[in-house]
Each structure stands twice: as C-alpha cells, then as structure tokens.
Amino acid sequence: MGIDDKAKNAAEKVAGHVKETAGKVTDDETLEAEGRAQQAKADVKQAAENVKDAVKD
Q1: Residue range 1-26: average pLDDT?
Q2: Of 1, 19, 29, 48, whose CB neighbour count within 10 A is largest?
C-alpha cells in the first residue's frame, strides 16, 4: 500500500470523526450518522489495503 493511500484513508477517517462530533454538538443525527459511515468506509478501505499488502508478502 502506498503512502498516498494511507494518508487518504487517515484523512477520510478524521473527516468522519469531525462530522460525527459536529453532529453530536449540534444535535444533528443525520450528520452524526454520516460521520460514522465515513469512518467505517475508511476502515474498510484500510482493511482491503492491508489484505493486499499481506498477499504481496
């Protein structure tokens, strides 16, 4: 996995956390859910990249 992919996944996870927190602060359940979904998406991408790395080794 390239450093670019790691950085993109980390940035997406952070953005999701920010959305989730903003949703909690503003009592916006939709925004909070979007943030959780974005974090989950980043986790799935990261897991897929880890599998690719394991297969390469």
Answers
A1: 92
A2: 19
CA angle 6, 11, 17 (to 5 degrees): 130
Structure tokens at 25: 């602060």
Q: How far apart are the first and last CA of the chain?
A: 12
Are 23 and 30 contacting, i.e. CB atoms less than 8 angstroms apart? yes
**pLDDT score recorded for residue 49:** 87
Kindly report the pTM of this predicted structure.
0.85
**Which residue from 14, 37, 13, 33 is spatially nearest to 23, judged by alpha carbons?**
33
Cα distance between residue 33 and residue 19, in whole Å: 9
CB 49 within 8 A of CB 12: no
